Amino acid sequence: MDPRAEERIVLESIYTSEEINITDDYKIQFRLLALWVGTPGTLESFVVNITWPLDYPYIPPIIDFNEFCNLNMPRVLQESLLSELNEIASQNVGESHTFTLIEHLRDNFETYAQQIRDAKKRPKERAFESVVAEDMEAKKGKKDTALTKAQKRRQINRFDSDGNLPRGWNWVDVIKHLRQTGVQGDSTS
User: Residue 3's CB: how many other CB atoms inside 10 A?
Assistant: First the structure.
């Protein structure tokens, strides 16, 4: 019997169909879900893809995190996980080791979830710090320019005694406007 088929049977007996999915061409999709979250794509969950080549287990499997629901994982964490898993796979060449890879992920899941949470907090903190810095720069750089006496006089004359603009200050003089644009004749003949 093919060693891949044997390992497939073993993995399907150990893990539920919600955790693992193995296709006929030996592509494994394992979902690591936090018990308190429970759905892929949420903050503390991710999916690992493991593909068994024809000569598996005598050559290491192909491991990746290329799934839409892994967008919440920082690239640095994905790369460190890939290096860890590839190292474990290279140490266990010659024997079935997908179970070992999955258990390594499950054992260290709390650490990975904490790293994901920390990475999600960092951009918010950076954004807050940058907004505060921009406000400080705006306050420092914003200086009131001194108005000349003529500018002050025009500003005072523009407003009435209550500080409001007079009625009709933004009205359009219709006759003046029509003189400038020209009257367009009716083409109804």
Answer: 14
DSSP 47: E
pLDDT band at 103 (very low <50, low <70, confident <90, very high): very high
Instruction: Please determine, for residue 139, whether its predicted confidence score (pLDDT) is greater than 80.
Output: no
Domain with 65, as residue range(s), is 3-116
Cα–Cα–Cα angle for 94, 95, 99, rounded to 5 degrees: 140
Report if residue 65 sits inside a domain.
yes
Query: Which CATH number does the domain housing residue 52 bear?
Result: 3.10.110.10
pTM confidence score = 0.59
Distance, CA of 31 to CA of 48 (rounded, Å): 7
Gap between the Cα atoms of 16 and 129, Å rounded = 45
Total structural domains in the chain?
1
- Separation of alpha carbons 160 and 162, rounded Å: 6
Answer yes or no: is pLDDT of 43 > 70: no
CB atoms near residue 78 (< 10 Å): 16
Tokens 């290096």, located at residue: 83
Measure the CA–CA gap between 46 and 77, rounded to whole angstroms: 11
Q: pLDDT tens across 75-93, in order?
A: 888 899 999 999 999 998 8
